[in-house]
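Researcher: Structure prediction, please.
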Amino acid sequence: MVCPCGCGRRLEVMLLKGVKPRWDLSVDKTGFPSLHPSVWVADGCRSHFWLRNGKIHWC
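Model: Predicted structure follows.
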């Protein structure tokens, strides 16, 4: 996914079981994705956010 802050950075979130760090992806009945836990970019733009029901919620 592209960082939602607008910096243009490509973020990779691992969804494979047994890999760390790893995120859980769920999709609601209308097709909107959610990720758990939050996504934190440790360097560069330092964004920290939740993706819930297709919307970004900043920490």
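Model: Residues 40 and 48 are 4 Å apart (CA to CA).
Researcher: Thanks, that helps.
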